[in-house]
Amino acid sequence: MKLRTLPAPALALLSATLLTSCLPRPEAFDPNRQPQPSDFGPHNVATEWWYVSGYLPESGLAFHWAQFKVNYRGIPYHAGHLAVADLRADKLNLFENESQNTRYGFPPLRVEQGQWRLNQQPDGSFRLGAGPLNLTLKPLKGLVVHPPGYSGTPEVGRLYYQSITRLEASGTVALAGGETREVTGQVWLDHQWGDQQPGAQARWDWFGLHLSDGSDLMLYRVRNAAGQVVQVAGSRVDQAGVAREVPDVTMTPGRVYRSPSGREYVLGWTVSAPGLSLTLDAVRDEQELLTKNTSVAYWEGPVRGQGTLNDRPITAEGMGEFIGGTLTREEGGRFVPSGR
């Protein structure tokens, strides 16, 4: 009878604690282990996520869907983010999913949180239904592991990293005002898992780009909590779907955007490597996401650029992600007591 007098949050915490007492300890990160396609998920680790992000200029849209599965102080926690930018109306909408009713599986891939679902179909395509999104995603390339197989360092934590870098998207997006817009274009699917704590422990500047020659470029610049760069990595997935390291890559910050929250994000970049020169910038500046269910502030939005690859002109379109830190309690942060 006493349990019935506890407030709902206390009962939920007690239930989760009792549940985790029966769960195995999270797997330790092994930098010598290379992920395989069969590692598409899920795993028993501290942090795991799946992303689908896309810049769809023909549809006047950009979107970012993310499913997070974390082990917070021994308690499993699940959170979902969905940001939809209507580039024609110059509006951004953020949706957060706090349901703890989740199901994960592979093969085939199944990532479900409440009514939000990314499910792999018998033909290898994916169905993504989340809030206003109703999409079919057809892979144009296979799964790849980005060299050296993970992002991060022992200092800030590490995450195994694999992607399907190019999928053909079709379907609809429901927008404010009752409009339902048809979707065409190409998107990017990411999967990462390991022992990193994004926002507090590690921050990064990331690009997933589709190049006009049919190849795809991933760029990753990892920073510690003090803002010091501890890793810069790049990989290019060629037209045949083979991923190779981009050696000696540099990401030089340029134009800075100061958001309404007071955080600063680099939105203009110069990228260089042997045979590669690229300038990148945001399509729309006001893309900061203050996500209360993970207490992470980040910029996620469409980017484009141009330059040369092996002395030939090239253009780039895709998404950028820049971590701005954590939310304070005053901003609605739940897991970080203070500071950014």
UniProtKB/TrEMBL annotation:
GO terms for molecular function: hydrolase activity. It holds the Pfam family CrtC. Keywords: Hydrolase, Signal. Residues 1-20 form the signal peptide. It comes from the Bacteria. Residues 47-195 form the AttH domain. SUPFAM superfamilies: AttH-like. This is Putative secreted hydrolase. It comes from Deinococcus aerius. The lineage of its organism: Bacteria, Thermotogati, Deinococcota, Deinococci, Deinococcales.
